[in-house]
Amino acid sequence: MTALDRVDAPLKVSGSAPYPSDFTLPDQVHAVLVQSTVAAGRISAIDTTAALAAPGVLAVITHENAPPLADLPMTPLGAPPRFPFKDDRIIHCGQHVAVVVAGTHEQAASAARLVQVSYETAKPVLDLDDPRAEVVDNGWGMEVDVGDAEAALSSAEITYEETFDIAPEANNPLGLFTTLASWDSDRLTVHDCSQWPIMTRQALATAFGLPESDVRVLVPYLGGGFGAGLRAWSHTLLAALAARVVGRPVKLVLTRPQMFTSVGHRARSRQRLRLGMTGAGRLVAIDQESTAALGAEEDNFSAVVLGTPHAYDCPNVATHDRQVRLNIPNPGFMRAPGHAEGNFALESALDELSYRVGIDPVELRLRNFAEVHPQSGLPWSSNALRECLQVGAERFGWRDRSPVPRSTRDGNWLVGYGMAGVTFGWYAAPCRARLSILASGTAVLKAAATDIGTGTYTIAAQQVAELLGLRVDQVRVEIGDSDLPPAPQSGGSGLAVALTGAIQVAAANLLRALLDEVAADARSPLRGRRLDEVTASDGRLHLIDDPAVGEKYADVLARHGLDELTADGELDLAAAAADAGVAPAGAFAARFAEVRVDEDLGLLRVTRLLSVVDGGRILNEKTARSQIIGGTVMGIGMAMFEEVAFDHATGRVANATFGDYLIPVNADVPDLDVVFVGGPDAFSPTGVKGLGEVGVVGVPAAIANAVYHATGRRIRSLPITIDQLM
Amino acid sequence: MRGFEYVRATDVGSAVALVSGDPGASYLAGGTTQLDLMLKDAVVPQGLLVDIGRLPLRGIATDGDVLRVGALTTMEELAADPVVAERVPFVSEALLAGASTQLRNMATIGGNLLQRTRCRYFRDIAVTDCNKRTPGSGCAAVTGAARMHAILGASAHCIALHASDLCVPLRALDAEVRVEGAAGQRTIAFADLHVMPGERPDVETVLRHGEMISEVLVPLLPAGTRSGYLKVRDRVSYEFALTSAAAALSIEDGVITLARLALGGVGTVPWRATEAERVLVGAPATARTFLAAAEAAIQDPFTVPGTEFKVELAKRTIVRVLRTVSGEQS
User: Which residues of B touch A668 (CB under 8 A)?
Assistant: First the structure.
């Protein structure tokens, strides 16, 4: 495991990495959004007179005068968000109803307050239990029904049934989402906070009736996304629309409050979980039903129960996935969507059962370890969950705890240990990468991937350097541009696997091309050699058996008069998975938490948190660790602080600021211990598994379980707050 | 675009004259609240801003048993003052429990006393029902997502919290504020400065338009009196109080001879627990006394579903701070 500093770190710490909001174009003007103040109904009138008369205002665009856009296409991650300027209907508070374009941002913001919108209001549907709400059952076809869960539950020695509630959370990347759109006749260029340039390009091309080749989406750097950048949100379309209307480049930067209503959130969810278990602690039945909020007239992937069926060895499993359409801003993806929620219920329940059957919580997980993939019966491509649990218990000092709840006290504080197991899903999407060797002997990698802060630049450079025998500083990585070879989204913990795999294919193709180039070159010591006879180091290709026989890339290119030699690599792991004979695995983990609870005052403090993670081959221990640490902090937020407070009557977000919406501050986060276990994954061509999301999962359950151990109180709703604990 | 005018005042008299003579004018000191309210959230109208930041109203002096604190002294400066640390440590504790270092280096003591509520219904102009902003329009917070709201001095007209930490010990100490106005100087008892909302939540203090706090007079505690500030909140730092309590006690032979107790996080104004003090003085410094004081402190609370827990939490906060200040090992 290497622990290389980020290759883009100097740019970032010196403030010179260009994020979307850092770009300024000649003649650029500014757009500010006007939002609905009601949650349901229709716009009866919009008076833009005063706004239009305000200084510097160039245009006020509403549903009444907006040029029509075509419907957005379906994406591999589901239906696109509804475009709000299609008609006069209001489906949530905060819906974009007008965009004001002016010479300066301040002029646009000031004029936006002068737009007078009148509404014909309807009573909004805001509650999961509202009988008026439209219910979507199994909207993603991901429900599982194996064996006979009902029968197994009715005959199980021990049964369990509880309900879990999780508050809605906002992604809140620090970088405010920005779109800078400019037109050059019928060609559109957009700087955008997208985690998926190819999807954004397709959406814009379809909306404006352009060939995709006439749309370019740029996002060299992104100030965080956490899933918020995986959809073609309306502000992106509106910026492009505004630029078209005024004929000048338009920059639109969402405000922090607008981030709560414009780019998705983790949907509120409620789960009913039933388990059946033997007295020896073996699971015999799992029946998990989730009900999650969904925007009215929207579709959104939030299969809360998706991780459960393959988490443990259990013969009878049924999952049910319901969504309820409400007049709320459209939820979206938020780091580890579904997994984070489903794991909280399952791992809390296993903890409860461990006390009932009198088996240590770690041991209970080990007894239910799935030796093979529970549904397919195929061997895992990798699975070090057992090692995660064992190494974690040892390192944390799990055995030192007094197993009896409420048995450890330190002054006003009750002390408790809790843990959770984690099985993350596997996801893959096709990826291409283009690799070139230049005359200088250095390499360039190109792909339309993004680095959302996770370290894509760094691991891509490392991978190229390793395969071509170069130093990392001899590799230039060009990503974040939809004109480059198509790559999947940074999301679903699939990019690292797909991109490093595609780089591996590209590197092989490139070296093959190089050998072809010298096949008949009498001056090349490598003439007539095959790919499997050679390897690369120190900027040269040489025989594996005799490193003295070989030559530098630069020499080959110079002799053959080439500026560069280029090859593409393509990888489609999802297609390959069908007959791989193994069950491709995502990451596994175990989390161990120590908490302190002051019961009088309801105070909860996390004092230790250990993550043991099987992420396959770890390309870069430093960036990998950072992913787990960041995810863990987000997990602490989910467990203890984060809740988007929707006003019960109006559906307005009542805490849309960083002062009011609580995320952990440094003082809330103890030193986070991270350990990697396991080895290279057998199915992933590079042995790598995704790590971007697993860091969140299991943290809430480990903390809630520790709270139980400390206090004897079981908290089944997140966040765990003072009023629940006092 | 609606503009605003900005003037940097050169002396107290002209600053007072400028603001007094213009109904739309207001003072700008540290700016940590006023700029948000005017320019970002637009919940107060834009008008003339008279920047008093460079007036000679900054500094701390001891005058017998009173600390004279210039209104432009920053929160961080007052928190670090050695006399404060020695004679009224709960003032320092309250200051350091508030905001962040960056904000405390900007925000002034005078401004802290006059800070506006953090109620998100007040601070969002998309909300039309706010008696504090528009008298007679109603209160959306009462039926809304309330949590950081008041339970004492509150009513269906308004549950907006006075969120200052500093004001809690100042209220306990019976501080005074020196005020400059067009009609001259006057001194206002801290107890009289803030006005309960009643049916006019828009009226928050007794200050007349144009009056400026120039100095805060903080009585020092007698030697041997112990004090403490306890702030209860969800996260460890950078959050307003759910509940807080400032207490000062003198105890002789196990009997309480002096008691000062004020509460934060619960009142529409900084809240003095006078009834609780009555219970404490002359009583033995025991857990039973502290519990009785806590019961006496929270009377006739006005709660909504999101704030019901504060009744019990405030009592427990009082008990805890009294236990700590009395020296009971906790």
Answer: 235-237
